[in-house]
Structure formats: C-alpha cells, structure tokens
Inverse folding.
DNA sequence: AGCGATTTGTACGTATGTATG
DNA sequence: CCATACATACGTACAAATCGC
C-alpha cells in the first residue's frame, strides 16, 4: 500500500496539461527509474490504483499498457504486475547493445568500462543542448543514457536514430587512448520529431566475441 | 462506405478466439497490405466502424491505436485516419544498407552481387511462408527484398526487425562457398504486428570499406 | 472572425472472460 | 471450487483539433 504513496508523491506536476494516463505512467516510470522500485517488485493492482487514486480503471490500464509496451513492466493474469528485470528496461544507454551468450543484454554506459574490453565514445551536440548537460553531476552524465537524459532534463524526445557500422581497419589512434585498435566504428545520429539533429555520437570498439543488437523499436 | 465492406470481407476467421480488436486490426492490415487501400486514403471514422460493425468505440480505438503505433496508419484530430504514406513503408532491400562515399545508398539484394565483394545470406522461415515463396519465379525471389515480397504476395507486413552484428572471426567456411572469410555476421529476425516471428536471416560479409546503415525508422 | 459539425483523444463506470494460485 | 488480477469489451461523456460555411 505504501507503494501507492510512492506514486502519489510523484504525481502532480503543477498545472500539467498532460493526460492523466501520462501523468500516472510517468509517476511510475519515476518510481522505477529512481530505484525506489526494484525489478521483480509487485506493483499495485489496477483496482487498488483505481480505488485509491482519482483514476478510472481504463486510465490505469492505459498507463500500465504503455509501461508494458516499453518494457518497464510485465503483467500476468491472476498474478499481478511487476517491475521488469533490469535488462529490458529503459536505462539502455545505447541505441544498440551487446548481448551475452544467453541472450541477456550486457549493460554499457557512455564511459563504460567493461571488464571485457574498452569502448571509447565521442559525443557531439549543439551548445543549447550541451549547456544543461554539463551542469549535471558528472557521474550522472557518464553513466546514464543520453536519450533518457534529454527526455527527462530537456523534454526532448528522440524519435529516430540512424547508425552506421564500419568494420574498417582504423589505425590505432593515440588520440583515442585505446590500447587495442578499433575493429568496429559505429556512428549514430539522433533526431527529434521535427527531424532536427540532436546529437551525433561515435563509438570505437575493439575486436570481441559479443553480438551487437539493433532493434527497430525505439525504447526509452 | 464501401471501405467498411472491405473490412467486413476480411473479418471473420471462423471461430477465431482472437480478441475482437485483433480481428479488426488484422482485417485493416489486410486491406492495406493487399493494396486495396492505398497510402493517403482516408479510413472509416471510429464512429462509422462502431455503428456499422459489431464493435464498440473502445474496441475500434484499440485496433486503430495499434496500427498507429506500428506505423501503418496516421490519425489526426478533426481530420480523420489515413493509410500511412508509402515512404514509411518499405521498399529497401535490406534492414540495413551499405552507403556509398557520397552518402547515397548502394542497392543490395538477397543474392546480391556487388562488384566489390560478395555477401552470402541464409533465409529461414516457416513452411507456410516458404511455400508461396518457392513458387515465385526464381529471379524474383533472388533479386527482391523479402519484406516487400511478404507484403505483396502474402499480405504480411513486417513491423519490427531486430538485428545483431558480430565482428567475430568466423572460419572461412567451405559450406558458405565464400572466397573470403566473413568479417561481419549479421543476423536479423522479422516480426509481424502480432509479434510473431516471420523469418530469420543471416548475412556473411567479408572485409570492406563500406559503412552499413541502420535506421530506426522502419520503412516499407 | 465566429459557429457549428466532424473526428480523434481522453476518461469514466461497468460487465464479463480467463489464467493463476 | 474460490478469490484474485489481468484482459477484453461495452456504452457514454466531454475535451480538443480541424474544416467548411
């Protein structure tokens, strides 16, 4: 029951003209992405939410439905709704991700540093966007995912990403400070809904046995 | 009004235990993918469908909502619902493509054959899908793009593709009949709107200087 | 500019089906 | 068999964007 209070605390947003199901959805997203609710934890039932909060059953279902579609929540008849395992959640820092042997997703962050190999990335964006970013705590910028940051901090959703993959033999550049020479170079450009470029990013990846996953469904 | 008849004709499925919104959604998918309804064409309004057919407003909205999420339909308040423009509906031969130096897209087909290097691909699908495919003229299957074929011949639109890229050092397999050893291996899985897997495809790509393009916008 | 009519978007309340435990 | 909880479905109401008059 105190779960509902966690939602209540995150609701409002003064004079938000967002639809109720969006407000509710985002409150739950906040509770999950903040770490308040951890994977596997049981969420309030539809009925509980509808009775306790000023939302109808349909509104609750619409909010939950979006969370399911976006992979933050899993639901099962007769059992309940649960915070999805971290692996398919929105904190995916990348547009593409590495897969473990068992098909689970390996976490990678801008700074990364895996135990397996190092990836170097460069990030380019406009001043208007860079300014709010550099004001953020350094650890936040370096460990989180740019898409999520831009959405949360600047309300700027990325709706399209194009990426290129090169298997070129890039020279072992001292500039990149990599021990190994990159085997793959990925270049990604992110666009807003208006088609404007928001940022451009390069990844230098050494030889490795992992599989990179590209999914045509954009997830936050 | 005769648009609704086009839906009615595709409804049924005897004793289909699928939810009503799925039946309706698939009927509309059929009308679009068969070419009966062309891009830009106006769809029946929610009210029309709800009044004419045995569907409530909510059910119609749920069906339309899925079509919008999957890019087959665009809707606008006060204006109506429309078949999405062909531009977002694909004719690109691949899920990903090679770029020329000037940024233009190099055509690649299942059999390929670039002047630059050879790509070998394997295609896996169910019998139900394979049968109509093998009846097609061989040159058609080998030069065209599976997504387009499936859409045109079987009325089966692909709405989502996941791909993995491996830079692994695959052995120069005699089985693949490649002169050069593959440097990149791409594996792609294609899904219908219902989330069912339609086909699985592997690509073996030798070392080259080209850039592979992945675009998060699914285009037909 | 205003004023309806149309059409999608949101929201409510209710009812019933179905898988889980 | 029963209680729980999600899934589907219905009918209704109103808000908001669009278009034509």
């Amino acid at each position: 029951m105190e779960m509902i209070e966690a939602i209540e605390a995150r609701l409002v947003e003064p004079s938000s003209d967002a639809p109720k199901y969006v407000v509710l959805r985002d409150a739950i997203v906040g509770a999950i992405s903040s770490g308040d609710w951890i994977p596997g934890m049981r969420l309030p039932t539809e009925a509980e939410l509808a009775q306790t909060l000023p939302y109808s059953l349909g509104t609750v279902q619409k909010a939950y439905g979006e969370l399911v579609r976006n992979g933050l929540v899993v639901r099962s008849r007769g059992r309940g709704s649960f915070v999805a395992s971290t692996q398919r959640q929105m904190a995916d820092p990348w547009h593409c991700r590495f897969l473990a042997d068992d098909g689970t997703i390996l976490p990678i962050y801008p700074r990364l540093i895996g135990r397996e190999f190092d990836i170097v990335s460069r990030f380019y964006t406009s001043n208007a966007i860079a300014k709010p970013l550099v004001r953020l705590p350094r650890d936040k910028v370096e460990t989180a995912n740019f898409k999520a940051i831009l959405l949360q901090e600047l309300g700027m959703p990325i709706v399209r990403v194009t990426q290129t993959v090169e298997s070129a033999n890039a020279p072992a550049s001292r500039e990149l400070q990599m021990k190994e020479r990159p085997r793959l170079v990925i270049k990604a450009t992110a666009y807003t809904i208006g088609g404007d470029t928001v940022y451009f990013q390069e990844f230098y990846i050494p030889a490795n046995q992992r599989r990179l996953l590209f999914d045509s469904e954009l997830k936050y």
Summary: The interface with chain B takes residues 58, 69, 95-96, 99, 160-169, 183-184, 187, 205, 207-218 of chain A (CB under 8 Å). Residues 45-47, 61, 64, 75-81 of chain A lie near DNA strand D (CB under 10 Å from a C1'). The mean pLDDT of chain A is 69. The helical segments of chain A are 2-10, 20-33, 46-52, 57-69, 127-135, 138-143, 146-154.
